[in-house]
Write a structure and sequence with these properties.
This protein is of the alpha/beta class. The chain has 14 helices and 9 strands.
């Protein structure tokens, strides 16, 4: 494989889950990317990036070449952080490649990230290869940036031609293309959109070999990164044990509605429901990474069950939440990996039946 200067790139990783941050950082280091900036929340990341524009020494950041950020985070989530990057005058580089990472890879979430100016969307559960593929995508095939009414970011029309035609409302003659080497300095009056064709900064930093065509990672490097991820299984089971304890504590303080004041009951339940929902989101994204796809399925169902904090906590809903938590605990206690065979199928059937009973209650 050709020599590339991956150590010249600086990558910002933002995720409120310390375990996932470690996992992403370790994978990127195996790829040869050593210059990593890590933040546990977007608010701190924004403050640091804002400071880097005026005082990079104090901020401890020069230029950022790539951002990997979780979507679902308390406070400022990944979507809001992305909008700040793309639209705020205090953002140091509004063109920086931005890879959104999330277990909530539903179509609505992906479209929201796309419309905020995301470069790539990395769905959890991920693998070393999928991380590598998304990093290579922004290096090998960066999309031109577009400035149009209500949008600034990479061209969103990387879709099937039929869908692209439906979305296209700007005629080619109404698009002005700006290049660094262009002599154009004024915008035409009929312009409805501007395309920025920029130099490939990532390839420039990687060195001359990166200019010889599409680049890739040595398969042995991908394998080493995957092995590094799997070496964290022990740490992951410790995290899951803590997750389960926290969900059980939240479950224990839920108050079922039984003639009491519903508004007060709902207010009391809002925090523990939100805690269970947040943990379910983390589990749905992580289970498949470590060979527990059953966890992804069960946690996704629990996430949906607890997504509306305003729903009344009836006794039936409380039992449904408890059934999900017990099923997840069973998977880890008995180390039911893969699809779990008959036991796994039985667990999924029981949860599916419980959801149907609740919906019919």
């Amino acid at each position: 494989m050709m020599h590339l200067n991956w150590d010249r790139l600086t990558v910002l990783v933002v995720d409120d889950n310390k375990f996932v941050r470690r996992l992403l950082e370790g994978t990127l280091r195996t790829f040869g990317i050593e210059n990593l900036i890590s933040e546990g929340d977007a608010t701190t990341a924004i403050k640091r990036l804002r400071l880097s524009k005026s005082d990079p020494v104090k901020a401890g950041i020069g230029s950022i070449d790539l951002i990997l950020c979780d979507y679902v985070m308390p406070g400022v989530n990944g979507g809001l952080f992305l909008r700040w990057i793309r639209t705020d005058e205090q953002a140091p580089d509004r063109f920086v490649p931005f890879i959104m990472v999330s277990g909530a890879a539903d179509r609505e979430v992906v479209e929201q990230a796309r419309d905020a100016g995301v470069s790539e969307f990395l769905a959890k559960p991920f693998s070393a290869k999928s991380i590598a593929d998304h990093v290579l995508q922004v290096v090998n095939k960066p999309r031109p940036f577009v400035l149009a009414s209500g949008y600034f970011g990479p061209d969103r029309r990387r879709v099937a031609k039929s869908r692209a035609k439906e979305r296209r409302i700007t005629e080619p003659s109404q698009i002005q293309t700006l290049r660094r080497e262009s002599s154009e300095t004024e915008l035409r009056e009929d312009v409805r959109a501007i395309h920025f064709v920029l130099p490939n900064k990532l390839q420039d930093k990687l060195g001359a070999n990166a200019l010889k065509g599409d680049i890739g990672f040595d398969p042995m490097v991908i394998q080493a990164a995957e092995s590094r991820i799997q070496s964290m299984v022990g740490d992951y089971t410790d995290w899951v044990a803590r997750y389960l304890d926290r969900m059980n504590r939240s479950l224990s303080v839920l108050i079922s509605v039984s003639g009491k004041d519903q508004e007060a009951t709902n207010a009391a339940n809002r925090k523990p429901i939100a805690e269970i929902n947040r943990i379910a989101h983390e589990l749905r994204g992580q289970g498949g990474i470590f060979g527990y796809p059953l966890i992804t399925a069960l946690a996704k169902s629990l996430y949906k069950t607890t997504s509306d904090p305003l729903l009344l906590v009836t006794e039936e809903r409380r039992e449904l939440i408890a059934a999900h938590i017990d099923a997840i605990r069973t998977v880890f206690r008995d180390k039911i990996s893969g699809n779990g065979g008959e036991v796994g199928s039985a667990l999924l059937r029981e949860i599916s039946a419980a959801v149907k009973r609740y919906q019919g209650a």
